[in-house]
Structure formats: C-alpha cells, structure tokens
Amino acid sequence: MQPIPTRPTALVTGASAGIGQAFCRLLASQGYDIIAVARRSERLASLARELNSAHAIEVLPLSIDLGAPDAVARLLSAMAGRDIDVLINNAGYGVPGRYLSHEWSVHERFQRVMIESVAELSHALVAPMCARGRGTIINVASLAGYLPGSAGHTLYAASKAWMIRFSESLALECEVDGVRVCALCPGFTFSEFHDVTGTRAQLASLPKWLWMSAERVAAEGWSAAATGRLVHIPGRINRLIAMLAGALPRALTHAVSRRESRRFRDIH
Ligand SMILES: NC(=O)c1ccc[n+]([C@@H]2O[C@H](COP(=O)([O-])OP(=O)(O)OC[C@H]3O[C@@H](n4cnc5c(N)ncnc54)[C@H](OP(=O)(O)O)[C@@H]3O)[C@@H](O)[C@H]2O)c1
C-alpha cells in the first residue's frame, strides 16, 4: 500500500496581521498546512476560513499569548507532536516611551515575546528538523537591529540585534544538518505595527518610498531563506541604510539617532 502523502507544515507566529499574515498566505499558496499563532482568535479563525477555501490545505488556529511564561509549552502541546517543516518567528510589537516610564512587568513580557519565545520555540523545533535533514526557520528581525539605539523603544533595537546574531549562529550550526535559518530584517512595512505601537502619526511625514508591503517583505524573506542566505534586508534603500550605519563613524550615527529620537519618539 502506498503511504498517504502528507503536506508540509509551517508554524507562523503573529499570524493575525501584517507580515505574519502575508507569510501564511504565501505558504498556503505553496501547499503548506499552517499552524497560525497570535492572541486574536477571531482574526485567526477568519484567516483559516480564507485559506481553507482558497487552497487544499489545513489551518490550525492557536490563540496563544507569547508573553505568558508557559506559552511555548502550551503551543507545543497543542501541536500534538506534529512535524514542523517551516517556523516563522514573527510576532512582535514595540513599547513606546522611555525605559523607566514603564513597570518592569511590561519589559519582562516584551522580552518573552521578542526573545525568549523565539529561542525556546527554535530550541524545541530545530532538533527534529536536523534529525529529518531538512527545515527552514525565518526570524523576522528588523533593520533596527543594524542601527544604533534610539531614545525610547529602548529594548526594541536590542531585541532585534539579538535576533540577528542568534539566527546567524543557529544557521551556521544547523546548515550541515540541512536546516536553513534566516534573519529577515525589514524596514518600514505597511502593517498594524505602528498603530499598535502608537507611532503612526509621528511617521506620517515619512516618504512613501521608504515603505514596503508586508507581502513583498514575506516573499523576499522566503526567497532569501530558500537560497541559503543567513540574513536578508528587503529593499535597496534599506540595504543602503544598513550599510551606511555600519560604515559611518559611530559618533555620527549617534548624532543622527539623537536628533531622530527627538523627532519620532515620545521620550518626554
Ligand atoms: N511594520 C514594520 O515597520 C516592521 C519593521 C521591521 C520589523 N518588523 C517586525 O515584523 C514583525 C511583524 O510585525 P508587523 O509589522 O506585521 O506588525 P503587526 O501587523 O502589528 O502584527 C504583529 C503580529 O504579532 C502578534 N503579536 C503581538 N504580540 C503578541 C503576543 N503577545 N502573543 C502572540 N502574538 C503576538 C499580533 O497578533 P495579536 O495582536 O493577535 O496577538 C500580530 O499578529 C514584528 O516582529 C516586528 O517587530 C515590523
């Protein structure tokens, strides 16, 4: 008897909006079953209905808050041992304002979503990927991970710089086992991010050409991972910004960051 062919499965965090939703649509169109994780269950249910009717795949919506201490354990248990071929660590947000204007619990939760859940989920899923000799992890970091810190949003750039270095190291460790890891570093992207973070009005004056669609970011990330890139910055302008940030004297980039923090961040 022929074995029943099984579809590959992609686990996407932050699947209820923006870049995560774009990844779900892209992967579903390529025949992946999707495990879609975020907090807003009605959004996930609606995405599941859309993808189920458009493609011959299955979607498992999981409403989980990745800021909760037991989130990854709950997520793994809900997946019931299912093999994961693609992991997209994408869930994220920003905490506006000065570091000391928030209780520690706000920062603790932020680090659970942006750092701990990424490290823990990767730790749980990369071993079975290596054992099967295949798998892809895309960590959605940010261009901010290449830039000097800014006043306000204090842990954001730091968490994304961490994500880039973590992805590079994991990629180099796992490539011999056939597993690809790529840090995707978008610049300004149309999504709900700046509404959630409360920076939409401050960014309204930015030129349109600085922005990219979530669909393009996801498509570029997927192609970059497929060709074995360790890091990908979507868009030529963003790559130029990252290059200048690395090449210019630190005193100059700090001066720019000091000025732009006052312009775009609520740090008073
Ligand atoms: N937009 C940009 O300009 C930009 C630029 C560079 C990098 N990025 C990065 O891209 C990633 C995706 O952001 P986006 O632009 O697509 O923003 P978005 O439209 O606001 O989507 C963020 C996603 O993360 C989920 N999420 C947030 N907190 C969560 C939590 N505690 N538990 C589970 N899920 C959570 C949200 O779902 P729920 O609210 O339903 O939980 C949502 O699905 C983020 O990591 C962000 O840092 C964005």
Describe this structure in words.
This protein is an alpha/beta fold and 268 residues long. The protein has a single domain (9-264), classed as 3-Layer(aba) Sandwich (Rossmann fold), CATH 3.40.50. Helices cover 50% and strands 14% of the residues. The protein has helices at 18-29, 41-54, 71-79, 104-132, 154-174, 193-197, 200-203, 214-226, 236-247, 250-264; strands spanning 9-13, 33-38, 59-63, 86-89, 135-140, 179-184, 189-190, 212-213, 231-232. The strands form 2 sheets. It has a 7-stranded parallel beta sheet with strand order 3-2-1-4-5-6-9, sandwiched between helices. Strands 7-8 form a two-stranded parallel sheet. The longest helix is centred in the middle third of the chain and has 29 residues, at 104-132. The radius of gyration is 19 Å and the shape is globular. Bound molecules: NADP nicotinamide-adenine-dinucleotide phosphate. The site of NADP nicotinamide-adenine-dinucleotide phosphate has 29 residues, from α1 and α6.
Output the structural class: alpha/beta
Beta strand count: 9
Q: Note the run of SSEs as H and E.
A: EHEHEHEHEHEEHHEHEHH
Question: How would you characterize the largest beta sheet?
Answer: 7 strands, parallel
Number of alpha- plus pi-helical segments: 10
Proportion of helical residues: 40-55%
The backbone outline, from C-alpha atoms, is globular
Q: Taking strands numbered 1, 2, ... along the chain, how are they ordered across the largest sheet?
A: 3-2-1-4-5-6-9
The CATH H-level homologous superfamily: NAD(P)-binding Rossmann-like Domain
List the uncertain runs: none
Ligand kinds: NADP nicotinamide-adenine-dinucleotide phosphate
Proportion in β-strands: 5-15%
Termini Cα gap: 70 Å
Per CATH, the architecture is 3-Layer(aba) Sandwich
Radius of gyration: 19 Å
The residue-averaged pLDDT reads 94
* CATH class placement: Alpha Beta
CATH topology: Rossmann fold
Number of domains: 1
